[in-house]
Amino acid sequence: MENKAHALAAGIFVLVAAALVVMLAAWLTRDTGVRDPYAISTRESVTGLQSQAAVRYRGVDVGKVDSIAFDPQKEGNVLINLQINRDAPVTKDTFATLGYQGVTGLAYVQLDDDGHAAPRLEAQGGQPPRIPMRAGLIQKLTEKGEQLLDQADTAMQRINTMLGDANQKRVSTVLDNLGTAAAQVTQLSHNLNSTVQTKVDPALAQAKQTLQSVQSSSDEFGRTARRINAPDGPIDRLAQGTQSLSHAADSFNSATLPRINRVTDETGRAVRLLGRTVSNIGDNPQSLVYGNGPIPPGPGEPGFVAPGAAK
After folding, report:
1. Residue 109: phi, psi to the nearest 5?
2. Phi, psi of 218 (to 5 degrees)
3. What is the value of pTM for the model shown?
4. How many other C-beta atoms are found inside a 10 Å radius of the C-beta of residue 290?
5. Residue 110, exposed/middle/buried by CB under 10 A (0-12, 13-18, 19+)?
6. Residue 173 CB contacts under 8 Å (≥ 6 apart), including other chains
7. Are 229 and 235 in contact, with CB atoms under 8 Å apart?
8. Residue 257 has pLDDT above 80, yes or no
9. pLDDT tens-place string over residues 36-56
10. Most buried residue, 109, 137, 180, 272, by CB count within 10 Å?
């Protein structure tokens, strides 16, 4: 009987301890704040998301996932019902993504916004307000991975096409042509060296001699220019002659020109007098015999008297 009493006491103690643990867990996990219902409707996969999963707003726990089901309003969409603290800043710019916890792969709902001021998201028509969901990092990586795989497959097909038998023959032909071209370039280089040694070198020597001759001519021209420009040289003498000629012209203008002008005037008057004389002689030739007096009338003219009758 004593052993049964000890077993009963131990059983009662275990039950009481278990009840206390359950009560402590319930107390620790109790919800002390007021929560409002929200919903998320999405066509994205929600793998790893379960009921009672955490809802975080920029990493801060603000609620729980209430339930997960299909959306009766949009066929094929998944409807996620949330319970979010009333003091959480859920606005019309708030959007949701799926985050994953470390190695476990368990998902949670991550809320965020664009950082702009916006009014609070309110319920309409008695239905919980819906928060839009955007593709998360894993979904973006999955989509990009599919695109990369498609591009890699296309690249491999092109590489296989490029490395086909026909292209390999073309590549071999091109390599052979390159080898032939390289040999020809080498031979051309040898021929060019020979040409340079046989033709270009004498031409360079001749050009050097020509340059030396040009240099000598240039030096001689410089010496000639210096002699011409030297003091009492041809340039100075020419300048002196020009000055003397200028002085002579000034003297001629100041002394000789007035005398020439007077002689010219007198000559003009003499010519005019000679002209009048010639005109008078032309009009009265008898003046050369009878002078400049009146001319006696001739036979047949009034006043004519014959020499015998006058006696």
Report:
1. -95, 125
2. -65, -40
3. 0.41
4. 11
5. buried
6. none
7. yes
8. no
9. 899 999 888 888 889 999 999
10. 109
